[in-house]
Amino acid sequence: MTLAGPVEDLLLVLTRRLPADRVTITGDHALAQHWLAHTAA
Length: 41
What we know:
Strand content: 5-15%
Number of strands: 2
Number of helices: 2
């Protein structure tokens, strides 16, 4: 799984301040969603 995009968008997605569709996810989308849902912001 890889998340790609502008650094600012990546940071905001990883801290759940933007939805994941703001960055490009390659590989296992379900894993990305699971990881984002189960990690602390």
